[in-house]
Amino acid sequence: MGLLYPKKSDELLFVSQYNFGLILLELLLLLLFIYSHFLKVMLRVFTNYILITKVSNWEMDWLSYRKRPYWGYSKAQAIIFLILGVIINTYPFVLTALWQSKIDTYRTVTSVILASISILYFFSVLGITFFGLFDFEKYSRAKWENL
To answer: CB 117: neighbour CB atoms within 10 A?
Structure first.
């Protein structure tokens, strides 16, 4: 359990022991978010098939509805992922402030790695969810129309 909480040794708090665990945790969150995005992409493949074949009026209405700004499951899920990311990234600073630990080289390096992954994480979640980055719905619809 030394990866997620600090241990004391000769009056020095080694925060670096859990920074590595936080890096792994943030990478896991990023992978889970990307996985959920690809599940949404597959959902859009099915939705586009129903739209092209005109089997369901509901799907046609849903397409019109989604053209206007709305808060669906994707945005709510992204907010949860962002909150978890903030918790992961503030954890080292809170512990450092509480125990006023000394700074060592390894902790500095792992903190820079964690910050770099955090930047990638936040821009990925924001870009994919709120700005349509990697939105493959148009390609999916075009494939169905060409069949």
So the answer is: 20
